[in-house]
Amino acid sequence: MSTEVYLVRHGETMFNQLNKVQGWCDSPLTVKGINDLKVTANALSQVHFDNMYSSDLKRAIDTVHLMKDANLVSDIGKIKKLPEFREVFFGTFEGDDINQTWDQVAMAAGIGHEDNVAKIINQVGLREFREATKRADPRHLAEDKDELDERMVRAIDVLRDVTKNEQRVLLVTHGDFIKTLSIKYWNKSDDKHDIIFPDNGSVTRGILHDNGKFEIVDYNVDAEKL
């Protein structure tokens, strides 16, 4: 049996608002973030889910509970947290200014000063962007492409195990993780060119097929348009 997976990006957080790097570090949802999520939750309130899951970071957990509380047609028990679906880890850059961080990454990638992440990725490719992030990190703790790729494969394996006999599930995760997952599993993307960053509260839909394969079929969709 195939499983339809609704990947929802958490709502806007304080660090999003302050333009700070936010991976494994956490910050609370803003009032705007909560209000935007209520729109998503209302749009999905009549969609039946066999289960709901989230990353183990609080911004994702708070988001999934908003989805659960608004849903009128699903009987969801305790939310299972999946740490494999955490955001990308940015090491020493966690909590730093985003533009300053990307400028340091661009310098490490050898392209000079550039603080637009999309332009950096389009010039050097995703693999080199991740490698440059790790090089630029003073402690070299940031996840590189291989480390993140290994975690994404493990995440899909875990999801496959926990969703056996479930036809449709909702999973709250994070922007860069959703984007990188989509580059890997969406046939409209590739490793060389950047795709837009998913919006807070948006839905990216994937299918876990009977044959074990995973594919992204919709990306960064406003829930009201599903």
From TrEMBL:
Catalytic residues identified in the record: H10 (tele-phosphohistidine intermediate), E87 (proton donor/acceptor)
Residues at which substrate binds: R9, H10, G11, E12, T13, M14, F15, N16, R59
GO CC, alphabetical: cytosol
GO biological process: negative regulation of glycolytic process; regulation of pentose-phosphate shunt
UniProt-listed InterPro entries: His_Pase_superF_clade-1, His_PPase_superfam, PG/BPGM_mutase_AS, Phosphoglycerate_Mutase
Keywords, comma-separated and alphabetical: Hydrolase
One Pfam family of this chain: His_Phos_1
Top-level division of the source organism's lineage: Bacteria
Alphabetical list of SMART domains matching this protein: PGAM
CDD domains xrefs: HP_PGM_like (cd07067)
Signal sequence residues: none
GO terms for MF: fructose-2,6-bisphosphate 2-phosphatase activity
Name listed for the protein in its UniProt record: Phosphoglycerate mutase
Lineage of the organism: Bacteria, Bacillati, Bacillota, Bacilli, Lactobacillales
